Amino acid sequence: MDKIAAPRGTADLIPPESARWQDLEARLRVVARRFGYGEIRTPLFESTELFVRGVGETTDIVEKEMYTFEDKGGRRMTLRPEWTAPVVRAVLEHNLLANGPQRLYYLGPIFRYERPQAGRYRQSHQFGVECFGFEGPEADVEVISLASDVIGSCGLEVTLSINSIGDEVCRPRYREALFAHFAPHKDALSPDSQRRLERNPLRILDSKAPQDRALVESAPTMLDVLCEPCAAHFARVRHLLDAIGVAYVVDPRIVRGLDYYTRTVFEFQSSDLGAQATVCAGGRYDGLIAALGGPPTPGVGFALGIERFLMIVERRGSAAALPQAGIAVITLGAAARERVVPLVAALRRSSDGVPVTIDYNDAKIAAQFKRAERANARVALILGDDELASQTIVVRDLVTRVQDTLEARGDDAAIAERVLAWYRALGPANGAAA
RNA sequence: GUGAUCGUAGCUCAGCUGGUUAGAGCGUCGCACUGUGGAUGCGAAGGUCGCGGGUUCAAAUCUCGUCGGUCACCCCA
Question: What is the mean pLDDT of residues A414-430?
């Protein structure tokens, strides 16, 4: 029988890598809470219709990347390819906007049927926030600031680019201006851009084809065409970013792929990600909620790719080594192994998060020490015939190799307390542990 | 969906223009060393050479297909 492997573009998350995920997830939740965002969790699958209407019928996501299936009741379902549409659906379903503006964050998997590549998978994970109900530029800046804090708290260097893509008033004008600019030179454009010219001229702006470069350089920018309210909004966003000390560059070539964006769009990019430079991206989507049948409500948010984020952390070598922690129990002989079971139980009950591990196999002491080391334990607790006879136990600091003999009379809870007190007295493992 | 490149032990890889029992380092396990861990020496376990077909007296090696990894395009986090 053939071995079954994880599906293409998916990955198992196993120790010690899973610990890094947990660490990042904890940081993300802390920052979100600090900004007053509450967590929302939505189903892994939704009606296909939600994404068709919410993301845009002609987007790549809807046209070719969705995992869609029919359930046994004949309903068309799709594995969540992005979070914003489901979040808006849930917000409307529970009528949250009746209570005024809402701040929500999410953290979990998305699914897109794409060819795997650096920083791109069929199941990937996103953290993001959505801020509903504020029309003013302060909300744009709040959301950018939150993203910036998340990235900064991990010590990463990325560049923030911002742009405005206008609204329903000025964007159509811009499309026409772009079309007028490129159409006369259609034959000089790359084949991809010739296609984009008809479908979505904005996309030509971030073309990577060398032959498009000159024409893109000379193209009019959105910022030239912005209507008065959009221009004012964008100016305020820039002013407020300056005020809170978040560095950015204005990049008129930033275009978002999803139909629902309006006005402010932004991307955080890293040079460590190959072709997938964007680690976090978002913007304002003032028309989306109404488009999904809700009351006209402004919104702004972003999504951050967990895999890409962690990839930068690793390539920058800023991944902190896991500290040596925990107690590894070493027993010698059947009598000790039996005696130690209730003692380990007592240790775990009162260990308050200190991991207590034990190897039940009858290995030599040297081998058990090696395993304790591999498990990254800080302290070894040794129990053999000698200790049983003298009613003691030996504790040894695996970092300094200093050891001690402790009294082991009385009940197990008291012995466990003695061991844990000895453990805690060592303090955190110092640099030598790393 | 398009293109390039790679799949040999748990990991990293060697294996020349096809030639018989497929190797190394690291790791694992054992012994030297009845109870003290990053050392040394000796030894052992571990492989349907991704999978399937073809060419050949003979295929890890050539060929076709397929699956998977990696990278790029499209597009996106």
Answer: 86
